[in-house]
Amino acid sequence: MRGTRPLGVVIKLGTSSIVDEKSHEPLLSILTLIVETAVRLRKDGHKVIIVSSGAIGVGLRRMDVEKRPKHLSKLQALAAIGQCRLMSLWDSLFNHLRQPIAQILLTRNDIADRSRYLNAQRTINELLDMGVIPIVNENDTLAVSEIKFGDNDTLSAITAAMVHADLLFLMTDVDCLYDKNPRTNPDAQPIEVVEDIGSLVADVSTAGSSLGTGGMSTKIVAARLATSAGVTTVITRSSNPGNIINIVKHIQASRSPPSPASKIAQPEPSSNGQNNTEALLQASVSSSTPRSNKIPLHTRFLPSPHPVRDRYFWILHGLRPHGTLYIDPGAYKALVGKAGLLAAGVVDVEGVFAQQEAVRICVVEKKRSTPGEDGKLWEGTATEVGRALTNYASSEIARIKGHQSAEIPALLGYMDSEYVAQRESISFFSFSGVSRPATPVREIVASHEPAASRAQTPLASPGEEKGVVVGL
């Protein structure tokens, strides 16, 4: 189509789209169509990434194992067996169309480490510039429960955000989202466009297959992550992968003429560091807009008009929070005004963490002068508004919270910074507070102070964070 620029397209395929649930045989008909679709997109000038599950499923077939085992070591062994055969299958299919591919295996630790995150970003972008289609999967052979993404829906969203993709396709066994379960409710209505995920009312009871780990709910979470980074996200049926091309053309036609661009990544940052570039694919389409019969049924999640990208996205979704800082409303107002977080604005600290580890930032309704019966220095609810990398360890912050910066040397015997957290190390989910994406992670609280901490006074073991609003 003339007058349209090439797009960055990420296609996520679950295990049920790659392997038959009962026989564990590869679904060659679907895989072949995916390959043809990806190559067609490449010939149209688009840059394509495939996030592929299926290693364990293929391993089950190779070893004639009937059911997915529960023990982690067996799953890792099957993943090691299946991954090489899965990539061999992809390479064989793409080779028929003379399309080179590459394998990228990631764990959450690769994302959490800033250097490895940037290396992965640069490698993927270089592959795309070379005309290669990267095939990304979680490194199940090495990943344990503490460092797993949990499902490839989340991995695909993080990958799409990492390379500033334009579109993320989450392929599933239904055409789109419905307001009710279409399998049990004949009057279920499709949801074609979602402008605000926070107000979404849809049936997400569809669970993942017996071979996979995802389901419709994980796709909603992935859509939250991707759209917060400015990526238009589409849910559509995996058995008709050719629909992707028609949907891409429809989205290209529905937006205003773009400015020339050659790469997926590298938008210009705003003066305050947090990228406020308008979403490239914000389409003026609502769920009530008549849909052409030529456009395949799908659900499209519109991107945020104020996307969070690069280091700010990494702070929010690449790192596992090790604790929580509770701040007063005045401190939050100052942070929104681009100031750093001072010790005077910190009401309380929870968790055990070292310097430069990620923490949650929660705003309390009202602080107390003395601890209440629950032991807290604040009352009411606390709303999580973002994440931060701290300049001080948890036990250090416990000693300086509520004090002026000038008092820090006397309290600690030194002062690394006047700020508990620099403004450039703080990232917010949403300034409006209406809805915010949450990276699904298994929270793990250390049982001792990390060696990197210089603090002398240990904190008591933290309890559950009751009263903290952290839901989806």
UniProtKB/TrEMBL annotation:
<keyword id="KW-0963">Cytoplasm</keyword>
<dbReference type="GO" id="GO:1901607">
    <property type="term" value="P:alpha-amino acid biosynthetic process"/>
</dbReference>
<keyword id="KW-0641">Proline biosynthesis</keyword>
<feature type="domain" description="PUA">
    <location>
        <begin position="323"/>
        <end position="421"/>
    </location>
</feature>
<feature type="region of interest" description="Disordered">
    <location>
        <begin position="253"/>
        <end position="275"/>
    </location>
</feature>
<dbReference type="Pfam" id="PF01472">
    <property type="entry name" value="PUA"/>
</dbReference>
<dbReference type="InterPro" id="IPR001057">
    <property type="entry name" value="Glu/AcGlu_kinase"/>
</dbReference>
<dbReference type="InterPro" id="IPR015947">
    <property type="entry name" value="PUA-like_sf"/>
</dbReference>
<feature type="region of interest" description="Disordered">
    <location>
        <begin position="449"/>
        <end position="472"/>
    </location>
</feature>
<dbReference type="InterPro" id="IPR036974">
    <property type="entry name" value="PUA_sf"/>
</dbReference>
<protein>
    <submittedName>
        <fullName>Aspartate/glutamate/uridylate kinase</fullName>
    </submittedName>
</protein>
<dbReference type="GO" id="GO:0004349">
    <property type="term" value="F:glutamate 5-kinase activity"/>
</dbReference>
<keyword id="KW-0808">Transferase</keyword>
<dbReference type="InterPro" id="IPR002478">
    <property type="entry name" value="PUA"/>
</dbReference>
<keyword id="KW-0418">Kinase</keyword>
<dbReference type="InterPro" id="IPR001048">
    <property type="entry name" value="Asp/Glu/Uridylate_kinase"/>
</dbReference>
<keyword id="KW-0067">ATP-binding</keyword>
<dbReference type="InterPro" id="IPR019797">
    <property type="entry name" value="Glutamate_5-kinase_CS"/>
</dbReference>
<dbReference type="InterPro" id="IPR011529">
    <property type="entry name" value="Glu_5kinase"/>
</dbReference>
<dbReference type="GO" id="GO:0005829">
    <property type="term" value="C:cytosol"/>
</dbReference>
<dbReference type="InterPro" id="IPR036393">
    <property type="entry name" value="AceGlu_kinase-like_sf"/>
</dbReference>
<dbReference type="InterPro" id="IPR041739">
    <property type="entry name" value="G5K_ProB"/>
</dbReference>
<comment type="similarity">
    <text>Belongs to the glutamate 5-kinase family.</text>
</comment>
<dbReference type="InterPro" id="IPR005715">
    <property type="entry name" value="Glu_5kinase/COase_Synthase"/>
</dbReference>
<dbReference type="GO" id="GO:0003723">
    <property type="term" value="F:RNA binding"/>
</dbReference>
<keyword id="KW-0547">Nucleotide-binding</keyword>
<keyword id="KW-0028">Amino-acid biosynthesis</keyword>
<dbReference type="Pfam" id="PF00696">
    <property type="entry name" value="AA_kinase"/>
</dbReference>
<dbReference type="GO" id="GO:0005524">
    <property type="term" value="F:ATP binding"/>
</dbReference>
<feature type="compositionally biased region" description="Basic and acidic residues">
    <location>
        <begin position="463"/>
        <end position="472"/>
    </location>
</feature>
